[in-house]
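PROTEIN SPECIFICATION:
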Amino acid sequence: MAADDFLIVLGEEVTTKTGHWLALGIDPGQVVDRNHQVRDGLIDQCLDQVHRVGGLCVAAHPHAPYPSGNFLFPFRGFDVVEVWNGLWTSDRPWNADNEAALAEWGRSLAADIQTGPWRPAMGNSDTHLEGQIGIPHTVVFAEELSTEAILAGIGPGRSWVAELADVDLGLESE
């Protein structure tokens, strides 16, 4: 059993031939079919499957440096974009793939703000190298420690990406 201040959000990294994406907040035992790709038009059905249970869909590491790492799906339909992922082969905390993901997210953010809803950014640590867990991570402003509250914080962008656990952010209105 985990500590009282620790929460595991159920999810799946959906690994397709044309990119990876995260299905966060799915039901226990729920599996998202990974046998889809850009050209078959099935992505919307898969995203709807996650949304029906109150989950979020995250475009994961859209410029990862391996054959199926390039995210070819349009961001439309996804709730969040992962702009910072853990290290692949470097000892630097920030690699070119993260730079490309951040730039693409920024361009989509500029367009989305003109038309309505926008996609927040998040950071995750695929653990490909030793010592990666939690570098980076997404800090969420939530009303309580529950899956519903965490997803409700991530979806509208009440979160930020940090490298270290001791980073704190404070906002004040005037």
Remarks:
- The two ends are 43 Å apart (CA to CA).
- The first strand starts at residue 11 and ends at 16.
